[in-house]
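Posting for a labmate who doesn't have an account.
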Amino acid sequence: MEIILAIIVGLLYASGIYLMLRRSLVKLVIGLVLLGNGVNLLIFLLGGLVKGKPPIIPPTDTVLGQIYADPVPQALILTAIVISFGLQSFAIVLIKRTYIVLDTDDLDQIHSAEEDEDDY
């Protein structure tokens, strides 16, 4: 199972970086989303996959005798999901405003529009 998740993480990283290198702002945001999901899966994978064992240890146990799921990576992933949702919503609003003002989402045209404004 870990091998399949490692391959999926690699695919998410590769596709995220590929989309981030495109010239469109929309593809840039989609690449950021894919890269963020790849990071979340990587953190989850590094925490260890334990089937059927919750991250809660009973109060009657004084010594850890069994394998249990580590709750720290799960908490980090939940925090990362909230932060990435805020980043994605801000980026979507920023892209919409840029498209309304400049009528394009091509990064080269946006850069040339900034150079044209500097000439005046």
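Reply:
Got it, the structure tokens are right above this. Residues 71-102 form the longest helix (32 residues).
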